[in-house]
Amino acid sequence: MGYQPGSALKGSPLRVITCVAMLVLSAPAVSASTEVYWSGFGFDGKQDFAAQRFPNSFSLFSEQEDGAGDLDTILREKVGELRTSSFLVNTTSTGSIGPDAPSSVALGFVLDRETVSVEPIGGQYKVLVALSAQAMFFDFKEMAIVSTYPFSVNYIHTQSRQPTDQDIRAIVENMYIGAGKANLFDRFVEVLVEAKLNTEVNRRIQVTSVSVDPAVNDTLPPVWRDNLEDFGVFLAQQFGRHLSEHQNVPVLPTIKGHAIGNRMSASFADGRVYELEIPEADYSITLSLQKLVKIEYAKVAAGTSYIYGSYLRVQAEEPFSGRPYLDTTIKNGEVKKVPASQTYVDDWPAYQDSILKLFGKFAAEIDSPSKDWVAKHIGDPGARKQLSAFGKVVQSCR
Amino acid sequence: MQINRLLVATILLVAGSIAVAQSTTSKGVANAVLDGPLTPQVKMQAVRDAGINALDRYFSQTNQAKSKNYQLIRDDIISNSGQYVLSVAVLSEDIDGMPLDEAKDIETGLYTVVVRADLDLNRLNNELKSQSVTANTATANKSYMTMVFVARQQVSVQSFDDKVYKRTDVNAELDMAGNMNNSVTESENIHGDSVTLSDSRDVSGRAIVNSTVATTTGGSTTAKADVVKWDLMTTSGMDATMEGVFSLAGYEVVPAVYLEEDSGGLLNVEAIRNDYRTGNDLSSATLRNTAKGVRLAEVPYLALGTLDVGMKSKDPATGLVRVNVTVTGKVLDVSGRFPKTASSVGPVQIAGLGPNPTVARTNALSKAAETAARQLSDELNAKGFH
């Protein structure tokens, strides 16, 4: 009798055991969790601009850096060795970027907005402090943000005297390390627990260029008016963040900046990680902030409602061939109510809200734009076809 | 159904290729003229052609020597393109500019596809090397090479104030012209016992003075070049990187210190290092002795060069430390009667980033060493030195 594969085991219990063992061995790993390397607290945008953009947070971060109660240590303790169904946070060792590395994903807390607004209302001062950040997963093999989960915490209170810089700083500090409900680090952990990590990068999309019409300049706060290039980077990163969040697509960052280039790179042992460059985009998006308007919407004895409107031109193309997919202007209006007793109105937070909500609405609608949405936010029914074409491109990046 | 592909792999001039971490990608484009509906076969062929176009574009972005080496074996590579193009992602496709879902009924027109291809760079480099003159030379006939590359950092810069010489020439001329009339009349009247005397004087004068002063200012400024002293740095890591690149290119690399004895003492690594401590070039005597010594040791190729580490600065975007390294080097063929330059590189500036100066410097030196060695070995291969 000649040899036949498997004949020796045919019908025997040993054969069954062998088959089961082979199945177990050939099956994917039981845990599909991707190990992600903790990188700590970072700032969105350029490092040398962080002190102006996040004055209170940067001051806290710098003063307490490497100290006993530094923000990084507190944040790391809160994150701990978090394990979810899709990832495991490694806070104790550094990763590798080599071809055999099981994971080259870093997780960071990236602060992207610090908004402080003080408005006098009826003999009191209304203080608003809004901090916005992202739980960002960045893959250094792909040099792309593979997932990002934005979140924000607002703190509002009134007081009888004009708040000092120390008052504001104390509020901001409390929002990081205080025991109150408005705690950004606690919110970060809540967001992480719900996060799903997708490390697939099929195609790369990026906001490559942003322009701001000179007519908008007067509306900007001094910190942006004097640093228009940084304002453009801010808009680009915010747009990308909304696209990634709503469409679950990886996006290329506009710049590496402090968060990716410095803090997240430090999660890897190999110093060559600092040399990695952002790859060329497969699809590029160009933004142009054309107009910001403030229109009185309704006026009653108790106060006035204003609409803060933003107009944004969005262009998308495949840059290699120059094939256009989208060229349209979208718009959005957000209402702000101003009590009659309010003697000064801080307009910028309302304008910013209008712009960022426009980004969010656009990103959420792009994969299946409705007629109503197109009518309300574009006005040209013909633009729906373009949006659908661009939506398919975005989906192809998943 | 009859479809003729008349135009394949239209070569555009704009190329885009990137190398990130372990993967290398490049974009490519291909066209096909349709004479019937677009079939999967036509599409597949166009995508394959676009992948080949991506390969061509990748090498068009590399250095001239490597690009030349690629041209020599291009036919072999594209006939097995599947081995080198790992995967392709279709980025856009259209027929006469119309998206495919709108051009379903079009049966004639130009189909265009753009792809991003993932290239197996290791395999490509191995193929290039296996086809090089050096690789095809028997091991016994392979050439030895030795090298002395020096990494150095400025320790002091003595600057000299400009020496200024000033000269002023004044040329003064005075023209004077004048005349003077002086007439005196005296009279005397005598009446009886009285005498009356009277006189009158008439004086008139005129003088013209013209003066001209011409001033010429001149001089010269002599600037003296800075005297730079260099601190030489450890080069073990950098040497290993360069030796690795030259070895992979098919050369038998012998560390220079092992040749000192065989060169009869003419090759003196310390003398070379000392020369580079104070200048950018070797002294004539050191260069002559080194070339002679290497030839005496029967090593045909000598690679020399410097990697100058610049001052550290802060990268404004990331806040990291940035260090620049300027690399310059050449390979001399000393096998003939007179040494001749076989290949050269630089000066090329390479920047390195890191959380501290040590990491930034190591990154910059490592990249600079690899860049220089690759450029030199590619050029040697392209010129047929082996």
Index terms:
heterodimer, A: 398 residues, alpha/beta, Rossmann fold, Double Stranded RNA Binding Domain, five-stranded mixed sheet, 34% helix, globular, B: 386 residues, alpha+beta, six-stranded mixed sheet, five-stranded antiparallel sheet, 43% strand
What features would you describe in this structure?
The complex is a heterodimer of chains A (398) and B (386). By secondary structure, chain A is an alpha/beta fold. Chain A folds into two domains: 34-200 and 257-279, Rossmann fold, CATH 3.40.50; 205-249 and 282-398, Double Stranded RNA Binding Domain (2-Layer Sandwich). Chain A is 34% helix and 31% strand. Chain A has helices at residues 13-26, 50-53, 55-64, 71-79, 165-177, 184-194, 214-217, 222-225, 228-247, 257-264, 348-365, 371-377, 383-396; strands at residues 34-43, 87-90, 105-121, 124-139, 144-159, 205-212, 251-252, 283-300, 303-318, 323-339. A five-stranded mixed beta sheet of chain A has the order 2-1-3-4-5, with helices on both faces. Chain A has a five-stranded mixed beta sheet with strand order 7-6-8-9-10. In chain A, strand 3 (105-121) and strand 4 (124-139) form a beta hairpin. In chain A, helix 9 runs parallel beside helix 11 (348-365). The radius of gyration of chain A is 25 Å and the shape is globular. Mean pLDDT of chain A is 86; it is low at 1-31. Chain B is elongated, with a radius of gyration of 40 Å. Helix content of chain B is 30%, strand content 43%. In chain B, a hairpin with a 2-residue loop joins strand 7 and strand 8 (194-222). Chain B has 386 residues and is α+β, with helices and mostly antiparallel strands. Chain B is built from eight helices and 13 strands. Chains A and B meet through helix 10 of A and strand 2, strand 3, strand 5, strand 13 and helix 8 of B.
Radius of gyration of CA atoms of chain A, rounded to a whole number: 25 Å
Main β sheet profile of chain B: 6 strands, mixed
Structural class of chain A: alpha/beta
Class by SSE composition of chain B: alpha+beta
Radius of gyration of chain B equals 40 Å
Q: Oligomeric state of the chains?
A: heterodimer
The main β sheet of chain A shows up as: 5 strands, mixed
Task: Give the count of helical stretches of chain B.
Answer: 8
Could you say how many structural domains of chain A there are in total? 2
Overall mean pLDDT of chain B stands at: 79
Q: Main sheet of chain A: which strands, in order across?
A: 2-1-3-4-5
**DSSP helix fraction of chain B:** 25-40%
Residue stretches of chain B low in confidence (pLDDT < 50, at least 5 long) are 1-22
Envelope shape of chain B: elongated
Which two chains have the most extensive interface, and how many residues on each? A-B, 37 and 36 residues
What global shape of chain A is seen? globular
